[in-house]
Design a protein that fits this description.
By secondary structure, the protein is α/β, with parallel strands linked by helices. The chain folds into 3 domains: 3-124 and 219-309, P-loop containing nucleotide triphosphate hydrolases (Rossmann fold), CATH 3.40.50; 143-214, Helicase, Ruva Protein, domain 3; 317-391, Beta-grasp domain (Ubiquitin-like (UB roll)), CATH 3.10.20. It is built from 14 helices and 14 strands. The strands form 3 sheets. Strands 1, 2, 3, 4, 5, 6 and 7 form a 7-stranded mixed sheet that branches. A 5-stranded mixed sheet has the order 11-10-14-12-13. Strands 8-9 form a two-stranded antiparallel sheet.
Length: 392
């Protein structure tokens, strides 16, 4: 399963974001280091379900469908807050970094209102510059990766030189514990433009390489949290393709209200519908969210962060395998039962392996359900494709 790390310094709303996204009950409090052990849960990426397009009622097994929107499970890990010099073991740094080993990408929760200092202590809004938090977190991960690279560097780089081993192969073995692939290291090496002779690389070159490895293998999306308390100018400083204003507290309040039947609201919606009478406190809370979050930003931003991370930052696509291309079902009659997330550029044979190795090994051909065309093993898949695989 795809894993996304929820990261940031203490007391910026990481656990609130995690709870809102997973409906888990991780401990929340207004002081640093509330989260000591990593909380794991399941959050969901949204994709249009083909059920509405084909006019059928689906029976999802590995996901959920709400009004024609498929919610696809993603593993979320909410880790201990990071403080400057964590790579030197300060705070809970070593634990933080260890928890991130398997994350495919990171959602960095940033207090865009500037109401927490660099250690995560409350301060007056706007008195701390969130740019410092963004910079230090990236640097901490860079130094962590560099620390792993430089262990036994002289001997290993010399071995590569003398034995003619490709440097990316050696680096991939060295960083295998972080889930970093050889292809990602290849791209990082190219972008870093380092001297050809790796035996001559020093601190500067290894740090530069670590930065590019982090960008390729652990890409980061910024969740500009507490946006309802931030000035427009502050948000505009950071807002961009992978920086999204959000209010994790607003999302948590809405999903909890929906869970208890007070409102009709689905994660990612731009509005809600009141279903039963509210007391004054509840009404005022919803009015605040409506005015300062939904009307201002179009949504709470939490679901947008997840979707953006999955479909754009990680460049994944959602594909639906079926056993009957006419009824869109499996052998038990379940309609559109499964959806799989695959890297963009994946082929039919990649999908077959994802479903079951026997299906791939006995592959004969496949049918693209929409076009009704027969396709081969190397046919490139598109987001939302429905595929029937025929195998021995």
């Amino acid at each position: 399963m795809v894993q996304i790390g929820i990261v940031g310094k203490p007391n910026v709303g990481k656990t609130t974001f995690f709870n809102a996204a997973t409906l888990a009950n991780a401990e929340m409090a207004d002081y640093p280091f509330t989260t000591i052990d990593a909380n794991k849960g399941v959050m969901y990426a949204r994709s249009p379900c083909p059920c509405k397009e084909f006019g059928v009622k689906c029976n999802p097994r590995n996901s959920r469908c709400l009004d024609g929107v498929r919610y696809i499970p993603i593993e979320a890990i909410d880790v201990a807050g990071l403080v400057p010099k964590a790579h030197e073991g300060r705070g809970l740094g070593n634990k933080f970094l260890d928890d991130l080993r398997r994350a495919h990408c990171l959602i960095h929760i940033v207090d865009v209102s500037g109401s927490t200092d660099e250690e995560g202590r409350p301060c007056s809004p706007g008195s701390h510059d969130p740019a410092h938090d963004i910079k230090f977190l990236e640097e901490e991960i860079d130094y962590w990766i560099k620390g792993l690279l430089e262990k036994d560097w002289r001997r290993l780089s010399m071995k590569c030189k003398l034995e003619g081993v490709k440097i990316e192969k050696m680096l991939a073995e060295k960083l295998a514990g972080l889930g970093i692939k050889e292809e990602e290291i290849k791209v990082a090496l190219k972008k870093a433009s380092l001297p050809e002779d790796a035996t001559k690389w020093g601190d500067e070159e290894l740090l530069k390489l670590a930065t590019h490895v982090r960008k390729e293998a652990k890409p980061i999306l910024l969740a500009l949290n507490k946006a309802d308390k931030a000035a427009d100018e502050m948000i505009k400083r950071f807002e961009g393709e992978y920086a999204i204003p959000c209010s994790a507290m607003a999302e948590l309040a809405l999903v909890k209200a929906a869970e208890h039947g007070y409102i009709d609201y689905k994660p990612g919606d731009s509005s809600y519908k009141i279903l039963k009478e509210l007391d004054e406190k509840q009404r005022k809370g919803l009015e605040y969210i409506d005015k300062h979050v939904l009307q201002r930003f179009g949504s709470t931003g939490v679901q947008k962060c997840i979707d953006k991370a999955v479909f754009e930052l990680l460049n994944l696509i959602a594909v639906y395998p079926v056993e009957d291309e006419n009824k869109l079902c499996d052998k038990d009659g379940n309609v559109l039962p499964d959806v799989f997330l695959l890297p963009k550029g994946s082929t039919v044979i990649d999908l077959a392996y994802k479903v079951h190795s026997d299906l791939a090994e006995g592959f004969i051909k496949a049918v693209d359900v929409r076009s009704k065309k027969i396709v081969g093993a190397d046919h490139e898949l598109k987001n939302g494709d429905i595929i029937h695989i025929i195998a021995r």
